[in-house]
Amino acid sequence: YKQRRFNLFREESEGYSKLISELNQEFDENRSAASVMDIIKSLIGCFNLDPNRVLDVILESFETRLSKYRLFIQLLRSYMPNSTIISEVLGYKFRHFAENNEVTPFSLYQITALLLKYGVINLTDIYVWLSPLDSTITENWHKSIAEANEFVRKMNVILTNKDSDPVEPEQYNPEEGYMSNQKFGLCEALLKVGDWENSLTIINQLPEQCVLVHELIAKALADIVHVSIDRLYSTKCFNSKQKKSRLYDDKKLLKEIQANSYNDLLKHAFPMTKTLGPSLRFDTILINKLLRIMKKILTEMNVDNLNLPASGSDDEILYNEIINVLDSALMKRVSKDNVKPIGRLIGKLSHCASGILFDYILLQIQIYDNLIGPVVDSFKYLTNLSFDMLGYCIVESLTKGDRDRFRDDGTSLSMWLQSLASFCGSIYKKYNIELSGLLQYVANQLKSQKSLDLLILKEVVQKMAGVESAEEFTNEQLNAMSGGELLRGEAGYFSQVRNTKKSSQRLKDALASNDLAVALCLLMAQQKHCVIYRETAQNHLKLVGKLYDQCQDTLVQFGTFLGSSYSQKYDQLRKSDPNSKKLTSSQKLQKYLEATQAIINPIVESVRPLYSLKIWEDISPQFLVTFWSLSMYDLQVPVDTYKKEIDKLSLLSSSKDVPNS
Predict the structure, then answer these.
(1) Rounded to whole angstroms, how far apart are CA atoms 332 and 126?
(2) pLDDT in tens, 414-424
(3) Strand partners, 406
(4) 0.90 cut: is pTM over it?
(5) Are 228 and 259 in contact (CB under 8 A)?
(6) What is the distance between the terminal CA atoms of the chain, rounded to a whole angstrom?
(7) How far apart are CA 258 and CA 254, in angstroms?
(8) What does the pLDDT average to over 378-390?
(9) Where does the THO complex subunit 2 N-terminal domain lie (predicted)?
């Protein structure tokens, strides 16, 4: 038979009924697409059915029987070799739901994804039928980013009118509009059937992270990464008992993407992970798997940032790819502009893999010192347990003995140690982290006659107490240093460290609780001689001079801190009084004198046997101890410097009071 035209008047509805019954009956495993095709041809010829409407019925049946996708894929290939026509029929279905503002059923996405995966249709043919337009998606994405930034800004606004109630800003929801976006739905379906190439095309077509910011799509891609690394993870780490997805039933997919060696990760697993980027947060199990595999690789390669693999080798390619994966997932996005969102992400990750996470962050800080500020600010969401782990990781990073602490020329300390020391000062000042471990580590290093880690103590005291260790003072600064604590802070240092009261108290308490104050002073005093004769016997003379100066500067800095803020005995006597909060000035003075006597009397008794009785006839031991205990502030008052700083502040205050013309 031969048919040229079809219309509603010649078609018989009985034919469609029989067609629907035939396509929706139970097919056994031996049923072939060719036999079904013969029946369809007979029905078309017998009942004058429109081939395009028959195609639509086949697609509708396919949509309800996704488990028989192999049969329907073969049937569609033999029935309609022209992929454009199939795309048009599917396109009209998508357009119908878009024009009527109806939610597109996910089954339609699934059959489209399966047809794309097995090459029945092309992505370019069906993509033009999907809504909304790429330009609309891009515009909405930029708008949502602006709304998110505005939400963060409103959360930080300080309410100045105490009588008005705070207005809760409308929370930004990234999932809004997801169900009406057919391109997002198709991308999710493609990933769920394991079609990485076509889904990547859609992802690259739209703005970065615009697609993967949605949890359903990110989890679908994470499932494919699970499939890719599962065999290697079970072999190298330990056997995973995670519930497996349907992707494991696709033997062709498993053969294509599953990694059997470390180098196989470069083909699919690592590119997929880099595409996921920060959206890895949706699957913490995958994060753990990837981190364990990467750690295993680096351990077996025996490399780190200072012991890199051979240039041009496969190990170098693999190492660089691991660093790129970690950067794309977290650290490359850390900046002063996105501290809060990245901080929340770090806070979440610290619950499941804190050790590996902090090791990597510390590694990046040692390489890129400009990350210190943003990273310190992003740690605001860490818990106390996470801070404890961070303190442990810092000490562990310092104790690694396979890294050179000197530069290649041997005349100065390495950059990684300087960056880590600066980070320690900043992080311990900003957050209430246990200091005992770090201080004890420095003391142990000094006991071992190693003074390099004094740089850690120097930075901690400078940041937490505001006492600067300056190598070169001007005359004005020298005069200011003979003044009180306030004058020294205003005019005695090059940089003015503010808000050190609480952090200084924490440092003092840590030293007192571990009896490290006097011990560190004695160890630093002894270390000055060890630097010259023992520690640096084989080192460059310039390095010896720097280490000696560092030891002396740190000792003076530490002594200045103790002298200005260490009043433990006075605090004990004051707090022992039941009315400690109601003491008058004279009572406080009396307590201070008692504390002074309690401290000086043992020293007086220890000094008395050092000189003959004839000496004590002219000068008393109390006077000798008191004289040598006095500071420059007690001997001389820098009146001119005080007057100069007061005039400077007065001038600054008056200039602010003058209204703008």
Answers:
(1) 35
(2) 788 888 888 99
(3) 413
(4) no
(5) yes
(6) 97
(7) 5
(8) 89
(9) 1-245
